[in-house]
Amino acid sequence: MTGPPLTRRQVLALGAASAVSAAAGAVLGTRRPSEPVPGWPTVVRDRPRAPGPDGDPPGWYRGIPGRAIVPSPDGVRYLLPTRSSAPHVHTPEYLWRLDAELADVDGEGAMAVSRGSMRAGVLVRGDGFARAYAATTGSDGLLRIARHEPLRAEVLAEDPTHAVVPGRPFRVRLVVEGTDPVVLRARSWPAGEEEPGAWHVLAEDGSSGRLAAAGTPGIVIEGPGPGEDGDVVLSELVLRSTGPVGATAPRIVYALAGPPTPDGPGTYRVPLRVRTTRPAEVRVTYGPGGDPVATTFGRAGGMAATAHVAEIADVPAGSPLSWQAVARSAGTGEEAVGPEQDLRVPPGPGEPVSFCFGSCTFPQPPHRSFATAASLRPDFFVHLGDLGYPHSSRWAAGSQDAGAYVDRWSRLLAEPSFRELHRVASVVLVQDDHDYGLNNCWVDNCPAWSARAFGEIHANPGPDGYFGFRWGDVEVFVVDVRRHSDDPAAPDGPGKSRLGEAQKRWLLAGMEASDARLLVVASPSPIRTRVPEDPSWETVFAHEREELIRAFASLPRRVVVVSGDAHGTRVMRYEDPGGSGRIVYDHLCAGTEQSVDVGKRVDIFDPDGVTDPERNPPRRQNAFGHVRVADGRVTMRSLSSETGRDLFPPLVLPLLW
User: Fold this and answer.
1) Backbone angles phi, psi at 402, to 5 degrees
2) Which end of the chain is less congested by CB atoms within 10 angstroms, N or C?
3) Which residues pair with 215 in a beta bridge?
């Protein structure tokens, strides 16, 4: 391959010729040959070898934790587990090449897939997690250039080439040049045959989301089909470039702070969670206005040593603070710095407190609710479950295993709108049934692996799914209604519990002991669901419902419930069974992003009229809840995810019963 690189004018002219040819019905063999391809030197020619002790081939790492890589006579074999029956449209798997950061790059991969439902190809300028330019092909013979994002692929161009045959090696080549616009061209052919002279697909990306900087190359795999497993044999990756070959820094996927706890007189301890693209050392700096006054080191742990936890201790109350995560490669020393984020600690007595809550976040972007909530600058945000629906009849993760679930949750947490929320508020993540991996699951059938996987993504206190924290005049009790629940189908009675005896004792004892002015029970599920067949306190746990309402109403401090799961937003009113006249309000807000379900009617199961008729929109809307405690009142609102406007009149209650 000789000759100078194509100029942008030549590439655009070739793209126009290709479009005209396609419109005329021309076949691949009659297309105009391309200009000479770039004569760039080879900077990497790597045939993957047997995996090392960490499970990855030397110089490579897996994008999704838990995937098996085994030796093959032709390179290495990447094994994919059985795919979900209804996987989300964008569930790629990546194998990244370490320490080959390149900007202008000519990448070529040789591989073979085991099933006709699979696609595979080359990616370049990647971030090592979700963003990259990719060229893929499959048995449909369609060669596609796309820009991959965390939860979608932006297709830039596609055209037919040769059809991939399962088990037969093929080669894909992708060239990426420039910055504004980025110019891309690709071709594919059966391995062992002569490389075509023409570029099959050409595209350019001048969008605001274009990938202009140097990045990581690798291999991308899509599929196999629902109910199938599969594998890809990777034989070789060749990288050519005239630019410098940089070391691969471990990038920060997301960084969030959990709820602070008292650490001493006037100080707090703040838990942190940092996810990196590859195993790394993580340190956290914090101080006023981004000027670090102390440093603490996170300890790597969890899946593929990319789920880091840390704590900042002795954080003083009452002054603005910020924190920042820094990831450092143990091998090369390269560093990546995360965004500067607010370090929130609870205010003193009598000062205002505000928080947001939501649940049931469909995986398709955009996710405007989090950016809208961030604009309100709440003290904290509680997500009450069904985060991206990794278990779903419509948009499941790629497979029903820990690696795919962690990947789905991490992609959501890495979305730009969620990052806006991380920067200004503490984040609490709660697990519900679609996060556990089984609809309406209970103690005997909640998959244990999913609870361990969920533990890799959050900064919550405690391992049992239920916990509490104090924020000024508000004390929040987060409950788990799945992991410790009795069988919903069992006969109702005094011994039947949705919380489990240990969790219920903890809840009632903690609420009894609290001197906070407002007690908030944050439940993934409301007291009453919208359909009677869903196992709720209103239907199959009615005895425990009356026990809880009676206990809540007997406390000297007001109790409110914030809840999710039952799609829609509304307020329900439960009178004290003991006859005190006190009302426990359950504020449901489920569906921060519901995509195709927006506008559907919400049919309410409400035989005795506990739903507030003024606060019950009849059709689904994207929404989240907002609660503010100030001036002796609690104000509860349901806000549009897109606009932040009230969806019904705010509920304003005095703090005193």
Assistant:
1) -60, -40
2) N
3) 102
Pairing of strands 341-342, 322-328: antiparallel
CA dihedral 404, 408, 410, 411 (to 10 degrees): 130
Tokens of 643: 């606009």
pLDDT band at 297 (very low <50, low <70, confident <90, very high): low
3-state SS, one letter per residue, for 553-610:
HHCCCEEEEEECCCCEEEEEEEECCCCCCCEEEEEEEECCECHHHCCCECCCCCCCCC
- The three-state secondary structure class of 13 is helix
What CA–CA distance (Å, rounded) separates 290 from 320?
A: 10
Q: Alpha-carbon distance 227 to 256, whole Å?
A: 35
DSSP for 126-193, please give it: E-SSS-EEEEEEETT-EEEEEEE-SS-EEEEEEEE-PPP-TTS-EEEEEEEE-SSSEEEEEEEEETTS
Residues 336-381: tens digit of each pLDDT: 999 999 999 999 999 999 999 999 999 999 999 999 999 999 999 9
For the stretch 181-222, pLDDT in tens is 999 999 999 999 999 999 999 999 999 999 999 999 999 999
Q: What is the DSSP letter of 119?
A: E
N residues, the chain: 657
Q: Coil, strand or helix: which one is 375?
A: helix
Lookup: tokens for 624:
């989240």
